[in-house]
Specification:
Length: about 350
């Protein structure tokens, strides 16, 4: 599968040198003549500076590694905030707000209590990041080649949504066991303090169902979240370079490009938090309780109940998403991976629309 995808990806319109040729008017048999010698040299130089070819196995492997770092490190860093948010969702009478939640947690568990669940968080979200970012690149290339160059540009938002949803489906299967363990440690005082204590205890009580009973509501939470995360980010980056950044992306330094990445990531993160919060509340309660179903939890929480902890989640997810995109893009810069610019309208489509002679 990967070898065929890699072969198709080489003709992908997201390929930076190809887009540059389209931009220079050199792609396609009917393109007007230009200064071919100089442009071809520039395109060749762009390819030579990369450490691997776009769509190669090395490219996808390093993208997956970037996902491991971006998700594993950031989610682990916000464990204290995530712990308080989970406790606000499952016991709103005791943990009445973000500041009150921190105060009560510190009083009961001390400073070390704020780090509960860090191990399953790191392992689970590292696995999720590997699948989320790695498979996103795979599915984006695959679906793009199915659509063709012109439809890829016209339907690029749908492409981002489909590719991210497909990637997250598999990412959540990898995440579910550690997410269930993390929530059990964080929301049931005295149940277990470490991953090594919690896993055998959960398996003894409920079997494998303990680790995967929350996968369906996890899909409900994470798939809309990831669709918003990737589609909003991609279109926000495009809009920033078009309307805000005073010079073309090609003229920006790597540091300036990473600043744009961080800003677009934060904007996407705010929308992600809002879209996915109700399902996040259901997942938190479901993994705490034995024998409950997602529909029962949703009915019991009601409309107001599922929005508890939204402010804390916006702060957490906004910062988290911005840092994830920043780390992911930084990994691409460090390993000199191809980083395609925002998509441009193909020359053939411009001619069809009467925008070019």
């Amino acid at each position: 599968m990967f070898s065929s995808v890699a072969h198709l990806a080489r003709a992908n319109p997201f390929n930076a040198p190809h887009l540059q040729l389209v931009h220079d008017g050199l792609s396609g048999p009917r393109s007007p003549p230009g200064p071919p010698q100089r442009s071809r040299h520039l395109a060749a130089a762009a390819v030579e500076e990369y450490s691997c070819e776009f769509g190669s196995m090395k490219y996808y492997a390093l993208c997956g590694f970037g996902g491991v770092l971006s998700c594993g490190l950031t989610h682990t860093a916000v464990v204290p905030l995530d712990l308080v948010k989970c406790r606000m969702q499952v016991d709103p009478q005791k943990y009445k707000g973000i500041f009150n939640g921190f105060s009560v947690t510190l009083k009961e568990d001390g400073v070390r209590g704020l780090a509960k669940g860090w191990a399953p968080t790191f392992i689970g979200y590292s696995m999720q990041g590997l699948c989320k970012f790695g498979f996103y690149e795979v599915f984006k290339a695959l679906y793009s080649n199915m659509l063709g160059e012109e439809n890829t540009y016209l339907w690029r938002t749908s492409l981002y949504l489909a590719a991210s949803a497909s990637a997250e489906f598999f990412a959540d299967i990898a995440l579910a066991p550690m997410e269930a363990t993390k929530v059990r440690i964080q929301t049931q005082p005295g149940y277990a303090n470490t991953l090594r204590e919690a896993v055998p205890k959960m398996y003894k009580e409920e079997g494998l169902n303990a680790f995967y009973k929350g996968v369906a509501p996890l899909w409900m939470r994470q798939i809309p979240y990831t669709m918003m995360k990737f589609a909003c980010f991609e279109r926000t980056v495009e809009a920033l370079y078009k309307f805000v950044v005073p010079k073309p992306r090609s003229e920006c330094t790597k540091a300036e490009q990473l600043v744009v990445t961080f800003v677009a990531g934060y904007i996407a993160g705010v929308f992600c938090a809002i879209v996915s919060h109700p399902a996040d509340s259901v997942v938190s309660v479901l993994n705490k309780e034995k024998g409950s179903t997602a529909s029962q939890v949703l009915q019991r929480l009601g409309f107001r109940g599922v929005w508890k902890g939204l402010f804390a989640r916006i702060i957490m997810i906004g910062t988290l998403t911005a840092l994830q995109w920043f780390i992911y893009d930084s990994v691409k810069v460090y390993f000199r991976l191809p980083r395609p610019p925002p998509p441009e309208m193909p020359a053939s489509l411009k001619k069809k629309l009467g925008l070019a002679e």
